[in-house]
Amino acid sequence: MADATILDFEYEAHTSPVAGADRAALLANPGFGKIFTDHMAVIRYSADKGWHDARIEPRRPIQLDPACAVLHYAQEIFEGLKAYRMPDGGATLFRADANARRFAESARRMAMPELPEQLFLSSIRELVSTDRDWIPEGDGASLYLRPFMFASETFLGVRPAQEYLYLVIASPAGAYFKGGAPSVTLWVSEHYTRAAPGGTGAAKCGGNYAASLVAQAEAIGHECDQVVFLDAAENRYVEELGGMNVFFVFDDGSIQTPPLTGTILPGITRESLLTLARDTGITVREERYSLDEWKADAASGRLREAFACGTAAVVTPIGRVQGRGFDFTIGNGGPGLLTEQLRQQLVSIQRGTAPDPHGWVERLF
After folding, report:
1. Same structural domain for residues 149 and 239?
2. What residues have CB less than 8 Å from 50, skipping those under 6 apart?
3. DSSP three-state, residue 51
4. Do 55 and 154 sit in the same domain of this protein?
5. Could you tell me if residue 62 is inside a domain?
6. How many helices (H) and strands (E) does the chain have?
7. Full DSSP string of 24-45
8. Crossing angle, helix 117-130 and helix 96-109, to 10 degrees?
9. pLDDT tens profile 228-272
10. Same structural domain for residues 48 and 167?
């Protein structure tokens, strides 16, 4: 079996890529997750060959057998990271090695083969290099990268599959939330939970997001931007949003976020913000925080700010929280000073306009 960490990528050029003028028009206002670049990275896995057949090829539909294992047993994981355009025209990746490690951790939890970290990173670098002209410029713009893997074996038995397909697709991205509102409104889910102890909450798998969609639909029905979930055991403690981690900022300047107990996704943006906060001397707590405390602290003024964070949304202020029988505002309902400070620190490092003391940024070209 070949050493999967040193696979060479074969390259198949797109015969009819998007024309330059058309691409420029698309990049002027890409939105989020609707526009895709010309190519994709593909690597195959089988139990007998291991990882093999690494390719950069034109983005095109995937042909699946109706008995494909992922369609029946949902063995699937994914990641999300970004390439950023630098002021001099180059491009950077932010903490892609952390995404590679989390991808392997998700694979272990879902009984899937672990993609070697260097092969994960090579697939990202090769695709970004190939489709470099698709990286948009401007504040808040980036090239969103979606690595994912699924069970591709044609088989209906309930067991881990023997064949998998790993791909990376890329999508020019603008703001995650529509309308450019200064803050978002959350809906507290009363009947649904995202994950339970011993489950897949810490894995980045599609099933977690599928389970959250009915609660997200409920949030939208109440004209809220996102759902926030409480813990499954007591239905008291704040855990995370449908697709983001959450932070609280108090009147003494300290910040708090729910601890990683196996039911919360270990966000890379979350970890980065904790590090930046500690670097600047901010007191940081990773402790449970109940809905009752959230209500009381918002009413008393002890809670000054709250924000959500993730790769797609970066750092997003939370202005208002609603649920059945309650509706409260945090601070002045808009972005807070510490929220903006942390966001600016993070974005400046990501885009190469500020020092990178932790070695998080990799320049690609």
Report:
1. no
2. 1, 2, 4, 113
3. strand
4. yes
5. yes
6. 8, 18
7. HHHHHS--SSS---SEEEEEEE
8. 130
9. 999 999 999 999 999 899 999 999 999 999 999 999 999 999 999
10. yes
> What pLDDT does residue 303 have?
98
- Place 4 in a pLDDT band, splitting at 50, 70 and 90: low
What is the per-residue pLDDT across 268-284, written as a single tens digit (0 to 9) for each? 999 999 999 999 999 99
Q: Residue 175: pLDDT band by 50, 70, 90 thresholds?
A: confident
The reply to whether 164 and 235 lie within a common domain is no
Q: What gap in Å lies between CA 191 and CA 70, rounded to an integer?
A: 28
Cβ neighbours, 10 Å, residue 116: 18
Which single residue is written with the structure tokens 């002045």? Answer: 332
Q: What confidence score (pLDDT) does residue 27 get?
A: 95
* Distance separating alpha carbons of residues 194 and 172, to the nearest angstrom: 29
Are residues 191 and 158 part of one domain? no
What φ, ψ does residue 251 adopt, rounded to 5°? -65, -15
Residue 74: its pLDDT value, please?
96
DSSP notation for 104-140: HHHHHHTT-PPPPHHHHHHHHHHHHHHTGGG---STT
DSSP H or E stretch at residue 323: strand 314-323
Domain presence at residue 53: yes
Q: Is residue 247 domain-resident? A: yes
pLDDT of residue 5: 66
- Using DSSP's 3-state secondary structure scheme, residue 98 falls into helix
Q: Are residues 126 and 202 in the same domain?
A: no
State the CATH number of the domain containing residue 154: 3.30.470.10
For residues 193 and 311, state if they share a domain. Answer: yes
Give the confidence band of 44 by pLDDT, cuts at 50, 70, 90.
very high
**For strand 76-78 and strand 142-151, is the pairing parallel, antiparallel, or unpaired?**
antiparallel
Residue 122 structural domain? 4-174
Among 138, 153, 174, identify where a domain stops. 174
Give me the chain's average pLDDT, please: 95
Look at residues 13, 193, 16, 161 and name the one whose alpha carbon lies nearest to residue 75.
161
**pLDDT digit string (tens) for 177-215?**
655 568 999 999 989 999 999 999 999 999 999 999 999
For residue 323, give the CATH number of its domain. Answer: 3.20.10.10
Note whether 335 and 105 are within 8 A (CB).
no
Q: Is residue 209 situated within a structural domain?
A: yes
Say how far apart CA 22 and CA 175 lie, in whole Å: 21
The residue out of 139, 174, 209 marking a domain boundary is 174
